[in-house]
Amino acid sequence: MRAHRFSFPTVRQFGFLALSLLTLSSCFPGTVWNVRQESLLDRVRRGDVGFLKGIDFDRVRPDEVTRLGPHAAFYMSFVFRDIGRDDASDKLLGVEWLRGSGAWRQEAGGLLAERLLKSAQYERAEETAREVYLAYPGRGVYRVLLQSLYWQHKDADVLKALARIAAMKNDDGSEPKDPELDLFRAVSSARLGLDGWKALFMKLFTTQEAWDAHVRAFDFLNLNPDDKAAFSPRELALMEAKSDIARERYADALQLLKPLIEARDPLLFTSADLHDLCRAYIQDGSLLSGIRTFKDIVAAVRAGSASGRLMYAAYEDLGHLYRTDESFANAIDAYKRAYGYAASDRDRDRMLWYALDSEVLQSPSAAAGVLASYAEAWHTPSFFDDILDALCTELVEKDSWAGLWDAYRAIDGRASRRVLSRYAFVAACAMRAGFI
Length: 436
Hints:
The chain is mainly alpha-helical. It has 23 helices and 2 strands. The protein has helices spanning 9-14, 37-45, 72-82, 86-99, 102-118, 122-135, 139-151, 155-165, 180-192, 197-207, 212-223, 225-228, 233-246, 250-262, 271-284, 287-303, 308-324, 328-341, 345-362, 364-377, 385-397, 401-411, 417-432, and strands at 31-32, 35-36. A two-stranded antiparallel ribbon has the order 1-2. The longest helix is centred in the last third of the chain and has 18 residues, at 345-362. It is flat, with a radius of gyration of 29 Å.
């Protein structure tokens, strides 16, 4: 989950051709790794790089590459990586980090720290990330430092790093979305035996939809029976089920969740857990069972004192189940009910998108007739471009020219200019042909 620092698309995309960026001649005559410089550059440019596999950096110095020109170590690191010599590639990144300059040095240092982390060389990754961060502060490399601390079980340092990274933006200035940090915080707190560590695990499992972090968190508990014993059977059932959903073991997950479903357990009544339950029903193909369950959940949520956000999630999931079952009228009704509980314009547009898509799937010509009501309600016209494009195509293929005209009038002044121009052009062609 690295934030991007500096982009070298030609290097990453074209591999060997990156060497064309190097100078044809060198300030230093002679050889590089016992190969004449001109010959080495020429062979690399032609893609004849098999000979590089035999270069032993225990016998020759990696920094001889600098004789090829500025930043040669950086570019050659990609050539070595392309031929499977990751060890040599990392050594050359190290050369660029030590002897390079500017953005090339920054990128080389960041890449080297990431690769050391990925290859489980955590101490070296920590050392490199610290050096890079001191020279080029940024969230991306600091996150590598955080991960290297986590894998070394330096948990007190992890918690300090978490407090610091929480205030950082991505290196491009955007706001970070980094749910994995909740995993680091929960596990490190548990390993330190801090008060509240159990609540951090429950937060992780009830506020995020199932993904790899839940697998890792549940594996941690299985490896630490004393910590696992702190949770109740129902809590463990939810945790294992979320782990199974992340592993795509949907039938196993539903079996674990069955007692919680029957008891209408409050653990299930979060937006994230409802979405996971819906996902399990859909992926398992248990649509009718899922529809029955979510109809009961909707009734239970509505009868209680649940938030509008939870009502929104429950109706949305019911709509997804109906839509997957091709019960489009019921899906439209569920999505429109979810719309009524939406807390933002974006959420309202999402429900309108699903409802309109269900209208098109059910009947393109009928969708054209009700399109005006959707167009009057949406907030971001371009959000619906894909559906409107699909509707236009469907109406033309079905020779539904009256529907096309209705759709054009419905979105006139309400759709994006790109979509509206397409409808106008098609309608004009249909008029010239006498269809309208």
